[in-house]
Amino acid sequence: MPGVDVQRVLGIETSCDETAAAVVDGGTTIVSSVVSSQVDLHARYGGVVPELAGRAHVELLTPVLADALAAAGSDASGRGIDAVAVTYGPGLMGSLLVGVAEAKALSMAWGVPFVGVNHLEAHLFASLLEQPDLGWPLVVLLVSGGHTLLVEVTAPGTYRLLGGTIDDAAGEAFDKVARFLGLGYPGGPAIDRVAEDGDPAAFAFPRSLLGKGYDFSFSGLKTAVVNEVRKHPEARTEDVAASFRRAVVDVLVSKARAAAADVGARAICLAGGVAANSLLRSEIVAACEADGIGAFVPSRALCTDNAAMVAAAGWWRLANSGASPLTLGADPNLELVPTHSPDLS
Amino acid sequence: MSAPATVAARTAGADATRALAGALAACCRPGDVVLLAGDLGAGKTTFAQGFAAALGVAQRVTSPTFTLVHTYPCGGGAVATLLHADVYRLDDLAEVVDLGLAEMVDAGAVALVEWGDVAAPVLGEGALTVTLAVPPGGGEDDRVVEVSAPAVGPLAGPGPNGAWQDRWPSVATALAPWRTGVPGEDPGEDGADPVEVHR
Q1: What is the ipTM of this complex?
Q2: Distances (CA, A) of A99 to A61, A69, A113, A307
Q3: Do B71 and A180 touch (CB under 8 A)?
Q4: Nearest by CB to A227, which of B41, B45, B99?
Q5: CATH code assigned to A8-125+303-321
C-alpha cells in the first residue's frame, strides 16, 4: 500500500475510559487535544456522566470532537483536516466501535483518508510529540492501569515485545492497594502522595521475577500487602504505601535498565499513566544518567490516554503504509506485535 | 423451588487452586456464567488462570480489571470462547448490562466474572457462584473455596443451558479431591449432605 502524505490529522480515542479527540500537524505538532475528563460536561448536560460504558462514549464524543475541531480552527465541515485516525484496538468492543464508526463516517463525509491505529503503538508515539529527535533503538516502558509492557523500538513502527505482565498491570496494583489502604481513587497519585512521608524500607515486599527476564508480576505483591496489613494492623499507612511503591518501582526500573543494556538502547522512554509516578520518574532518570543513556518522560497529559498520540501514530501509518480500508473493524484483542517474543535473558 | 447446592473445598497453595478451577471449567458448557467472589488477594486471578488453561486458552490470562473484559479463544473443546470480565470498577448495575456479557454468552461463550457477586442481580440467574477466601490459620496460600449452584428447581425449569443442578453429581465428583465435606453454613433445612440436590 503506497504511503499517503498529509498535514493535519484528526485523532479519535475511545478504547477505554477516556473519550478524546485531537488535531496534530505533520505528525508532531499538537494543534488541539481534548480529553473528556477535562471537559465541563456536567455543566453542559447536567446530571452524572457515566464513566465506563460504550454508551458514555456515544454521549461524549460529539462535544469532545466539536471542541477539538474548533480549537484547531475547523468545524463539522472538516475544513483543513486531511485525514482521520482512530484507535481500533485493543480495548472494550462497545467503546472501540463508537470511535471507529465515527471516524469512518467523518472520513466518508469529508472525503479524506481513514486510518486505524493500535492503542499501544499510539502510546509509543506519545514521546515523539515532545521529543521528535529521539534516537533509536529505544526501550519503552509502558505502564498503565491496563498494561505493563517493555518494548524495544528499533525505528518508528518497528517493535519487539520484550516482556509484559503475567497477571496484574502496575497501575492496577496501585489502584487496588490504594483502595485497600483507604486512600481513594485514582490510586497512583494517592499512594505517591502518602508514600512521601513513609519509610520505604519498613516492609520487605516481594520483587517478583526480579532478575528473571522481562516479564512482570504484581498480583503477589498486592496479596503480600494485604497479608502484611492484616498481620500488622498497627502499621503506618505511609510506611506501607512507601514500601509498596518502592517495590513496584524497583522492579520496573531494574527491568527497563537491564533491557536497555541488553538491546543497546540509546534511551529509555516512559509511557502510560503510571509514568506520572514521581518516584518512577526520578529513578528512571537517575538510572539512565548512571548508565550514560537518555531518559525521556513525557508530560502527564501525554502519558495518559489521549488522542494526540493517536493522530501522531495515524500520521506515521498513513505516510508509511497508507490508508486503512473502510472494512477495518474494531479488534478488542489487538496486540502490538502478533506473537510474544521469547525473553532475551 | 429447591435449595441451592453447594460444595465446600479447601486448596493448599496456588497450584491446587488452579487445579480446582480447571476441574470446574471442565464441567462448563457454552452459555455458562461463573461468578467469582472474594476479597482482594483471595486468589481470583489464580483461579481464572487455572480455569482458562483447562479450557485450552493458550494466551496469557492477565487481569481484566481496567479493560473490563478479555476475550480468549479456547482450544478445541465444546467451549469456543472464554470471556474473562471484572466488574470491580463498575459503579452501577446499568454499566454491567452495558458490557454486553449476556449477549456474548448467548453466542456460545463461557463467562468468568470477577467480583461477580456484586453483579449477581443482573448476571446471576442460572449462574454458578465461586467464593474464595483466606482461611484463618493455615498457610498464606491456602484457600477455602465454596461452589454454589443457583436455586433453580423443577418448577423454575432448567435454564437455556440446562440447570447446574442437573450436572451437580459430575461437579461434585470433579471437585472431590479438594472437598472438605460440610461448608461453614447450614447445609439445608433437613441437614442432608449439601452436595445433594434438594428436590
Answers
A1: 0.79
A2: 8, 15, 15, 11
A3: no
A4: B41
A5: 3.30.420.40
